[in-house]
Write a structure and sequence with these properties.
The model has no long low-confidence stretch (mean pLDDT 94). The protein has a 7-stranded parallel sheet with strand order 3-2-1-4-5-6-7, sandwiched between helices. Helix 3 (71-85) runs parallel beside helix 4 and helix 4 (108-136) packs parallel to helix 5. The protein is 45% helix and 16% strand. The radius of gyration is 17 Å and the shape is globular. Strand 4 (90-93), helix 4 (108-136) and strand 5 (139-144) form a beta-alpha-beta unit. With 248 residues, the protein is an alpha/beta fold.
Length: 248
């Protein structure tokens, strides 16, 4: 029996929010499958460590500081990847923040931050790669939304709104594209650093309760791999991944 075709091998894949959690797990899994991973985040020391670990196990990785709220920073990440490896096959727009709080707390700075990272960050990633994809005639945009794009919970109104936006942006881009694949990954509860910046005590306790049943970041990495590993004429548009025993 012949081995299945590996559609990920030798692809150049940019990952934002790659310094921990889902981004880190995805980078390591894709590198194991032979992809060339380009890691972007603000924590360069952690990025360098992850890239070193990947290289030590025979993978190919490049790390570069990137702030997804800065369009020029993300554009530089994309073109650096292209210059290094000759092309960019996919971007995984994974960076996100989740400072949950009731709207009555009026944490408007946190609202702004979620809009900047979760929405503008995705738009900046898309804007950075679309010219490259047009030149190549192909490409793949993968965006991390959330179960919050499908279910709104108390304290999560603004966060869920940003993830609804990610879903809408992805769906619009999909409809406009005939040679760019677009995938939305909507994780349920995952044990990551997301939410470490919650300042509202009640919301922080609520998240702790939610995470009593949680997925590992590896579960989401496998979903990303599944979408990437399809033949060029197959576009996996959306994957929702929840813990078996959890509502969320």
């Amino acid at each position: 029996m012949s081995n299945p075709i590996n559609h990920v091998e030798n692809k150049t894949i940019i990952i934002t929010g790659a310094s921990s959690g889902i981004g880190e797990a995805t980078a390591k899994l894709l590198a194991q499958r032979g992809a060339k991973v380009v890691l972007g985040a603000r924590r360069t020391e952690r990025l360098d460590q992850i890239a070193t670990e990947i290289e030590a196990t025979g993978g190919t990785a490049m790390a570069r500081a990137a702030d997804v709220t800065d369009g020029e920073s993300v554009e530089a990440l994309a073109y650096h990847a292209q210059n290094m490896f000759g092309r960019v096959d996919a971007i995984f727009n994974n960076a996100g923040v989740m400072p949950l709080a009731p709207m009555s707390e009026l944490k408007t700075d946190e609202w702004d931050n979620m809009i900047n990272v979760n929405i503008r960050g995705v738009l900046n990633g898309i804007a950075a790669v679309l010219p490259i994809f047009k030149e190549q005639g192909s490409g793949h945009v993968i965006n991390t939304a959330s179960i919050g794009a499908h279910v709104v919970v108390p304290s999560g109104a603004v966060y869920c709104a940003t993830k609804y936006a990610v879903w809408a942006i992805s769906e619009g881009l999909r409809q406009e594209s005939d040679n760019v694949r677009v995938t939305t990954i909507s994780p349920g509860v995952v044990e990551t650093e997301l939410g470490h910046d919650i300042t509202d005590k009640t919301s922080k306790e609520l998240l702790t309760q939610f995470r009593q049943i949680a997925l590992s970041p590896d579960a989401i990495a496998r979903a990303v791999l599944y979408a990437l590993d399809q033949p060029a004429d197959v576009d996996v548009n959306e994957v929702i991944v929840r813990p078996t025993a959890s509502t969320f």
